[in-house]
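Suppose you are handed a protein chain with no further information: no name, no annotation, nothing but its sequence. What can you learn? This example shows the usual starting point.
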Amino acid sequence: MRTEGITWHPVAERPDSDTTVLLFDPAASEPVWPGYLDSDRWRTAEGMLAAPTFWAEMPGGPKE
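A reasonable first move is to predict its three-dimensional structure. Written in structure tokens, the prediction is:
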């Protein structure tokens, strides 16, 4: 089994636009979900506006 560490970045540090990342919002009912930065707006993977406090690169997944 291989484990991956997740490094959380404050939203002031921006990922490349339109790259899927993990978003974190401690006030949300589900605090971690996939999303992306659309120019200067954070959005969920479904395209809804989001207000995360942190983001992280998506994990690579298991190696077969």
